[in-house]
Design goal:
five-stranded parallel beta sheet, 7 strands, Rossmann fold, two-stranded antiparallel ribbon, alpha/beta, 277 residues
């Protein structure tokens, strides 16, 4: 049984589409007129296993800020770069909140990803095949598995790949912010702060490869940058309040929990209040 089917049986995400977009978003579908706040992001913004993710919590606190959740599970920046509808919807929003996404789920000069399911590895470029001639790329379906394996093959060769991913992320993020214009909030919403000393060998942490210097380089293009990581209280609560099947427990344990979503909602709410002025 697919994970998606198990999840739908436990928590209804009310999946919906908007005319002009091929993407499937968390519902219910919202009205794209009047005053609303648009949210772009990955699995955390979507709220996998979470009954009320932080966009919904912000809306509960501020009745005038209707939340339109454009978060997509395992999204990369390519999801939004390839969907003109989302850019238009964000341009019409009072504010757009953009979760920092990893640099791995994007097409780049080393490999291509699926245009909508950005975590899916499609093909290696000739450059990547030349860089890693010993690797059989037909063995990989997901970017995270690919990158973990390549770094284990050669840390030195991996440095060039990582540098390309970082530069591609900067170009795409700047382009997205310029296209949206208006008021934007860039949200770092992750288990650890940027530049935490974590090993790619033991556990790939999101957002992959994005560091503090990269955040500072996009800061001039956004209204606010806020950082949210779990407090000690939120970490102690673990998966309490999350909704998942027994099969999904290992995945849920690696994700941000209900209490961290409440902490994010508080910080986002404060930022939105500042941007009213």
């Amino acid at each position: 049984m697919a994970y998606e089917n198990l999840s739908e049986g436990l928590l209804n995400y009310f999946p919906c589409q908007y005319e002009g977009s091929k993407l499937l978003f968390r519902g219910p579908r919202r009205r794209l007129s009047g005053d609303y706040v648009a949210y772009l992001g990955g699995t955390e913004t979507y709220g996998k296993f979470i009954k009320s993710p932080f966009p919904a919590l912000v809306e509960e606190e501020h009745d005038g800020d209707r939340a339109v959740n454009f978060g997509c599970v395992n999204a990369g920046l390519d999801v939004y770069a390839n969907d003109p509808f989302i850019v238009d919807a964000c341009r019409n929003a009072r504010v757009t909140v953009i979760q920092v996404l990893g640099a791995h789920n994007m097409t780049n000069k080393y490999y291509s990803v699926h245009p909508r399911r950005n975590d899916r590895f499609l093909r290696a470029s000739q450059l990547l095949r030349t860089t890693y001639p010993e690797v059989d790329f037909t063995e990989f379906n997901f970017t995270r598995h690919l990158l973990t394996s390549l770094r284990r093959q050669s840390v030195d060769r991996f440095k060039s790949l990582e540098a390309e991913l970082k530069e591609t992320w900067l170009v795409r993020m700047k382009r997205l912010l310029r296209k949206i214009g208006g008021k934007t909030v860039v949200l770092w919403f992750a288990n650890d702060m940027p530049d935490s000393k974590l090993s790619i060998e033991t556990h790939l942490r999101d957002p992959l490869f994005v560091d503090k210097k990269m955040i500072e380089r996009i800061r001039p293009l956004t209204s606010e940058v806020i950082f949210v990581t779990p407090s000690s209280v939120a970490r102690a609560r673990g998966t309490a309040g999350m909704i998942f099947s027994p099969m999904e427990q290992p995945v849920a344990e690696q994700m941000l929990g209900v209490f961290t979503h409440h902490e994010a909602a508080r910080k986002v709410s404060v930022a939105l209040e500042r941007l009213r002025k």
